[in-house]
UniProtKB/TrEMBL annotation:
PROSITE patterns: TYR_PHOSPHATASE_1. InterPro entries: Prot-tyrosine_phosphatase-like (IPR029021), Tyr/Ser_Pase_IphP-type (IPR026893), Tyr_Pase_AS (IPR016130). This is Protein tyrosine/serine phosphatase. GO terms for molecular function: phosphoprotein phosphatase activity. Belongs to the protein-tyrosine phosphatase family. It comes from Novosphingobium hassiacum.
Length: 278
């Protein structure tokens, strides 16, 4: 159901079991899940064509087999060049899709993910929360990330094969990108936030947090307390709200941001709707 503005009129797919059914329980790839299926403007997002995850450098052969069966035609890699060099993603031997990214660095700390960059100077959970809010306020305006977001929208609007969107942890850069697509397609805000927050429970969240803790502590010392690590390695609705607020203040809406910064045209939007909404 949609309202008069074309936005889905109420939250959808919100019970815990249905949300967890989106998740592929893989051994070495964290946060791998389907972000389709939500009520949208004019119908419902297709299932099995929009996938998101963390990086694949630790994928098991069994993981690669499962991912291969999805028939991915495009992989959008939101990491920076140094991240890709340090942690090259494993692919199935028969992978024939295309990996797309804008060259350069998406984090200001060479070789690090954006949440690791935010960890500098963090000791407490409150420090971490403030750092993540600062990060999200300007995340959607980083030049290299904007370049990959542009490729992401253009490709989704013109290709029919399933796609995968990922960064290192699949939560911040990936979370904002997925939320932009949800928003321009009229997914209800409550569902956008619910999908974003699924990072906190998708798959083996404790393993993901433990892996992240090693990275942030090795780079920024061991004075950071456990609660701070959990904030850095998780997501909160306030983070995404801060990103959306930044877009809205500068462009009037998330859709305005997509138009002004990512080159979303009416023709591209029609392509997105034709390929992603049933």
């Amino acid at each position: 159901m949609t309202d008069h503005d074309g936005m889905a009129s109420g939250p959808d797919f919100r019970d815990d079991q249905t949300m967890q059914d989106r998740v592929l329980p893989l051994r070495g790839i964290h946060n791998f899940r389907d972000y389709g299926g939500y009520a949208a403007r004019g119908g419902r997002l297709r299932r099995g064509v929009l996938w998101r995850s963390g990086q694949h450098c630790d994928a098991s052969p069994e993981d690669l087999d499962v991912v291969h069966e999805l028939g991915l035609g495009t992989v959008f890699d939101l990491r920076g060049d140094s991240e890709r060099a340090a942690n090259p993603c494993l692919r199935h031997q028969d992978f024939a899709g295309e990996v797309l990214f804008h060259p350069g660095e998406t984090a200001s700390e060479h070789g690090r993910a954006v949440h690791e960059e935010a960890a500098r100077g963090v000791v407490t959970a409150e420090d971490a929360r403030k750092a993540m809010l600062r990060l999200y306020e300007q995340l959607a305006y980083r030049e290299v990330l904007v370049g990959t977001f542009r490729l992401y929208l253009k490709t989704l609007a013109t290709r029919d094969a399933p796609s995968l969107l990922h960064c290192l942890a699949g939560k911040d850069r990936t979370g904002v990108a997925a939320a932009i697509v949800h928003s321009v397609l009229g997914v209800h805000h409550d569902d956008i936030v619910a999908d974003y927050l699924l990072t906190n429970t998708a798959g083996d969240a404790e393993a993901r947090i433990a892996a992240g803790a090693r990275h942030v502590r090795s780079g920024f010392g061991r004075s950071m307390d456990d609660a701070a690590v959990r904030v850095l390695m998780g997501v909160e609705a306030a983070f995404l709200d801060r990103a959306f607020k930044s877009m809205t203040e500068r462009h009037g809406s998330v859709e305005g941001y997509a138009r002004d910064m990512l080159g979303l045209t009416p023709e591209m939007l029609a392509g997105l709707e034709a390929r992603l909404v049933a």
